[in-house]
Amino acid sequence: MAAATLSTKQRRKTNMYENGNALHPTKKMRRQTVIQNDNLVPERPTYHDNTHTVPPKTNDVAFDIYSRLPRELRNRIYTFCVEGSYDNDVIVRRTAVDDTHRFAYLIREPCGQHSYQWVEDPLTACLKREALGGDVAREMLESYYWTRTFKFAHHELCLLGPFLRTDVFGLGIIPAHYIRRLQIQIRPLDFAFLLPAQRRSEEEQCCKAVEALAAIRTTRTDILIELDEAQDSLSDAEYKHFSSEAAQFTLKLRSVVETLREQGLHIIQTMGT
């Protein structure tokens, strides 16, 4: 009895398996297709986190830019990198050590919604051979001189000549050959308060500082000389008296400017009050 029952179960199970294949052939085909498709899916590469957390070295990035991109595209990258956060004005000042061959480049930095402060340009610390490599550092420095407007206040005119002639960054780049915009402020009334001998000495030094513009070898440089004759705290009578002294110095300066223009320099002279 038991043997007959077991035999019947085995036959029923066998029939179900055979009938299943016969009645539902697509099940087997789907099962085979899934297996075949699974074998075709390529295995995704695994990435180790440590290879992505280490940033590339600046030297490596600079080398790739220099070796793979044409100069036109490199110049666009450099221009973007050297662009000021507020504007492109740079005030040239003495350094703290009072060395006439080292300069502080001051730029505006936003410090509020409608305010700014003057800080030393952090970009100048990056324009080094050690940081970028010699080739990229030189090209980026060229763009820095091309795109910025360098300003000299009246009391810093003695720095104009050394600035134009000095390779400050040691990259073989002389500012006089690359700068495109230069602004100079001169206050003739500041000399009027001095004794005659001292006044003549100060006026001569000012004229020599302007003559240093002859170091500029390109006609593409725009030079703006602003003669600031603001009255400030002078009374009307004092202003009228000292204005005649200032006018004589202005004539001397105008003669120097005309000589520079004859040499091909593009100089605009304005009067400010």
What does this structure look like?
The protein is α/β, with parallel strands linked by helices. The chain has two domains: 2-40; 79-272, no CATH class. 50% of the residues lie in helices and 16% in strands. It contains eleven helices and seven strands. It has helices spanning 2-23, 25-40, 50-53, 58-68, 71-82, 129-132, 134-147, 160-165, 189-192, 196-211, 236-262, and strands spanning 89-94, 103-110, 116-120, 149-152, 181-186, 222-228, 266-272. The chain has a seven-stranded mixed beta sheet, covered by helices on one side. A hairpin with an 8-residue loop joins strand 1 and strand 2. Helix 5 (71-82) packs across helix 7 and helix 10 runs parallel beside helix 11. The longest helix is centred in the C-terminal third of the chain and has 27 residues, at 236-262. The chain starts with a helix and ends with a strand. Mean pLDDT is 79; it is low at 16-31 and 33-54. Residues 1-21 are annotated as: Disordered.
Structural class by helix and strand composition = alpha/beta
Gyration radius (Cα, Å) is 38 Å
Q: Give the overall shape, derived from the CA principal axes.
A: elongated
Count of discrete alpha- or pi-helical segments spanning 4 or more residues:
11
Query: Could you name the ranges where pLDDT drops below 50 across 5 or more consecutive residues?
Result: 16-31, 33-54
Mean pLDDT across all amino acids? 79
Task: Please list the strands of the largest sheet in the order they lie side by side.
Answer: 3-2-1-4-5-6-7
Report the biggest beta sheet as strand number plus sense, adding barrel if it closes: 7 strands, mixed
Question: Strand percentage, roughly?
Answer: 15-25%
The span between the termini is 126 Å
Helix content: 40-55%
Series of H and E elements: HHHHHEEEHHEHEHHEHE
Question: How many domains would you count in the coordinates?
Answer: 2
Number of strands: 7
